[in-house]
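Weekly structure sync, notes
Attendees: PL (lead), two postdocs, one rotation student
Agenda item 3: pending single-chain targets
PL asked that the sequence for the first pending target be pasted directly into the notes so everyone works from the same version. It is reproduced below exactly as submitted, 289 residues in total.
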Amino acid sequence: MTPTLVRHHQPHAGAVPRVDPWARARDWAEIQERMLVPLYEAVYQRLEVGSATRLLGLGCGSGLALLMAASRGAGVTGVDAGAPERLALARERLLPQAWGTRARAGTRLVDGEPADLASGSGDPEPSAYNLVTAFEPIGCVGGDSEGLVESLAGARPLVGRGVPVVIAGWGPPERCATASVLRVATKLADPLRGAGSWRPALRDDLEEVAQRAGLRPDGSGRVSCPFGYADVDAAVRGLLSTGLFDAAVAATDQAQVDKELREALHPHQRCDGTVWMPNIFRYLIASTP
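Predicted structure, written out during the meeting:
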């Protein structure tokens, strides 16, 4: 979902929903982003991320994955296009001046695409990075891999041969409780097609992306990433922060989206009011030729 649990998609033709982008970015950073921590941890442990790692994070958002890599001693660079509010939060988290310390010196955050890393001062040399990550999961909206292929291709000149590249995706819908909730977005945004506009994750999604980007698959894994919220209000705020419901808001209205989202969350609410949705995410480790 960008920068998000998947990449943002423009709403269908019509009025753009009125949202506070800073509030959405805060909701993402404070509520939703942490749901993918098990994914980040599994990848970093498997690849032994540490002080020798020079990581390039594509679609870095508000920077939690980069922060976790930096805490392991890695040097980190993040790029993200179209999410300036999230990137501003990443700067608060990662840049030395925000912390009054040199602990994260060398961190670079760029509002743009990988090609933009080659502009300005401090240009990276070829083979500047020995790990590339793209943690925004694909596999729940048709066409959500297109921008990822372009971004991966743009990063190729910045890495050498045999460098691991990690991409992520949703697991099978039957193992992702959140899938039924996210279907509300496509149903409201495109009522003529209804649930048919939902695009379930397919078994070889990640392998196809790697092939199109000119990468060689080397291994994969599955990780449990349950979505847990203190209450329904927090769940609604977190899910709306992904941007997946913006087209639905534009096609109907915020009140209608909130109502149907709450109804979809009801089966996942526990007796104590918390919301719990088990999910499985998949990651692929590929390498540059």
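Discussion points:
- The chain is about 35% helix and 20% strand.
- Residues 6-15, 99-103, 192-197 have pLDDT under 50 and may be disordered.
Action: rotation student to compare against the earlier draft before next sync.
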